[in-house]
Specification:
Layout: H1 9-30, E1 40-44, H2 50-59, E2 64-69, H3 72-81, E3 88-91, E4 104-110, H4 119-129, E5 130-141, H5 146-158, H6 161-169, H7 176-185, E6 189-203, H8 205-214, H9 219-223, H10 227-240, E7 245-246, E8 249-262
Helix pairs in contact: 1-2, 5-6, 5-10, 8-10
Bound molecules: S-adenosylmethionine (SAM).
Protein name: Methyltransferase
Organism: Octadecabacter antarcticus 307
Keywords: Methyltransferase, Transferase
């Protein structure tokens, strides 16, 4: 499974998905590393940089923050948004970053880990670049929410089972036990997993589904549908989630696992 966005998707991702989803989880993730003024931080799979910017706010002008992502479009948006923030941006795969060993006090990553093609190698790379006693915190979806289940079911009906499989893959995430085993095998100690839940509020399906799918790797498959099929897909999601509409918003619980450890 991969997560690669092109065209206007990084813009839609930043303008819609960051305020509704990723910005909220970002503040929650950063509480796990308690960054201090002057520390050095690597944000892996930083995307448009929501967690990177918060990390820079926390370490202040004496701190050094690096955002790393494989996708040039996501990094272009990240650079634009942090124009005046003195953050280093690196376009690279998580493996073979070329970063010096023992150089960061903290490595963070939000919703990147399950896309890495070689997770044990990625964890070893994070261990290598962390300074002794450095800490890691990564958040990963804890499976599907009511919204993502409804969406994937509609994608299967109105686009195709193959595209639905791709979309479902975004939430096929490792169990807490697998995360603990993976970090321990890479050398981390004091490894823990904490489950975090948030009540998520998004606009009604007619507004939100096109924005969400427009910010996903399957955006082209959705945009290529004839209008009546697009409307049918959206209506299907709206119907499935009709019991979860409150004050013109869809309201549902979502959850992540945050895995932490020390070098
Ligand atoms: C769902 S986005 C999360 C972005 C950001 N962390 C956030 O919370 O908004 C997943 C990110 O992982 C990046 N990514 C996927 N595979 C990668 C890899 N092998 N190396 C580096 N980045 C990768 C994608 O380019 C994308 O920006």
């Amino acid at each position: 499974m991969s997560f690669q966005l092109s065209g206007s998707a990084p813009e839609i991702y930043e303008n819609s998905m960051v305020p509704l989803w990723f910005g909220r989880w970002a503040e929650a993730l950063l509480t796990f590393v308690s960054l201090k003024t002057g520390e050095t931080v690597l944000d892996v799979a930083c995307g448009t940089g929501v967690t990177t910017r918060i990390a820079k706010r926390d370490v202040g002008s004496d701190g050094r923050v690096t955002g790393l992502d494989i996708n040039a479009g996501m990094l272009a948006k990240a650079r634009e948004l942090a124009d005046d923030m003195d953050i280093t941006w690196i376009e690279s795969d998580v493996i073979g970053t070329g970063l010096p060993k023992d150089s960061f006090n903290a490595v963070i990553s939000q919703h990147g880990y399950h896309y890495f093609p070689d997770q044990p190698a990625a964890l070893k790379e994070f261990y290598r670049v962390l300074a002794p006693s450095g800490r890691i915190a990564m958040s990963i979806w804890d499976g599907h929410s009511a919204y993502t289940k409804a969406l994937c079911s509609a994608v299967e009906k109105f686009i195709s089972p193959e595209i639905a499989k791709k979309q479902r893959g975004q939430r096929q995430t490792p169990s807490a036990n697998r995360l603990i085993a993976g970090l321990s095998e890479a050398g981390f100690r004091n490894v823990t997993v904490a489950r975090q839940e948030l009540s998520i509020k998004v606009p009604l399906a007619a507004t939100f589904v096109p924005l969400h799918l427009g910010s996903m790797p399957i955006a082209n498959a959705f945009h290529s549908l004839p209008n009546e099929e697009k409307e049918a897909l959206i209506a299907d999601v709206a119907h499935t989630l009709r019991g979860q509409v409150v004050d013109d918003q869809i309201v549902y619980q979502d959850a992540v696992n945050v895995v932490t450890g020390l070098k």
